[in-house]
Amino acid sequence: MTxxxxxxxxxxxxxxxxxxxxxxxPARQEVAAYRVLVQxxxxxxxxxxxxxxxxxxxxxxxxxxxxxxxxxxxxxxxxRRMHAxxxxxxxxxxxxxxxxREQLVLMDRQEEIAAVEREMAQVASGAGM
Length: 129
Known about the structure:
By secondary structure, the chain is mostly helical. It has six helices and no strands. The protein has a domain of about 80 residues. Helix 3 packs antiparallel against helix 4 and helix 4 runs antiparallel to helix 5. The longest helix is centred in the middle third of the chain and has 21 residues.
């Protein structure tokens, strides 16, 4: 399912049941559930998706830097979307950008690091941090 497609009622119910279950979900399943739920309730689930994507990148893909970077980029996209809807949520975006920056540092991608740092400074100054 693409992220822009609307989630079916069954997919939303399955995602909610998975998250409400008594067992701890693997990061992969948690991310999958949040990806579905963010389509129906973005304000509630974008912050959770951003956090879950970071954990997923760290836990399951530390040995695959390009995949970890892609997951962290998706976390930044979720945080940017949240920030666009609620500008007071700048801390979420700064946190996601910092985590993305950490992965860029590990991969020695200096030009991208500078761009991320500029965006972090801009968000932080706009949020009065």
